[in-house]
Fold Ferric oxidoreductase domain-containing protein.
Amino acid sequence: MREAVRNFIPKNRIWILTQLPAVVMGMMLTYNGSQWELLTPYSAYFAVSFLVLTLSLNPIKKLKPQWVWVLKLNRHRRQLGVASFSCALIHFVCFLIMRGSFYKAVPYFFHPAIIPGVWVAFPILLVLAISSNNRSVKKLTFPKWKQLHRTVYLAEGVIIVHMILMGEFVFALCFFVPLVGLQLLRFKNTPV
Ligand code: HEM
């Protein structure tokens, strides 16, 4: 038992490290709910950063296969993707606290700037996080699992829209122009 506990941290260090931002923000909110104001942008930018990092790794790997750090990080894409969801969850909880309760927040779910986040990006990230394990790959079979995980590109698109409608045009450009550039370059370099 003690051995299992001792092995837990080294074995799961990447999970622990990637979930740390969401866990710390979750603890801050539990301790003092009024910190939603501070944590709304922090959780949002952590979520976007993890997402952009996750989606950049494969294109960089294809373009620069000699970059060892990319190969190493690429092995942890699953953890990075789930971390994006955890931070998006904190972002969502901040929104619920800001509005007072889930029921009071519901009418705002139909605001044009919130629709892409709440009805498209968040559900996609949730489903992808739940299915980011070997059991789901086995259950769905790899081609179907892969198809499901391609919906992340839809999430990427609507997050750009969400950010722009939230008035974060410059930050949306800073995050997504390099990512979309990499994705297009990879596409161009892939033989048909
Ligand atoms: C779950 C449903 C979502 C809701 C209700 C929501 C709500 C909001 C709100 C109210 C803001 C403006 C905050 C402010 O003015 O300070 C905002 C901004 C933002 N959201 Fe979301 N969002 C959602 C999903 C997402 C997702 C999934 C992402 C990315 C993974 C995201 C990324 C951002 C970013 C980067 C900003 C700009 C930073 C900021 O101003 O806080 N949002 N969101």
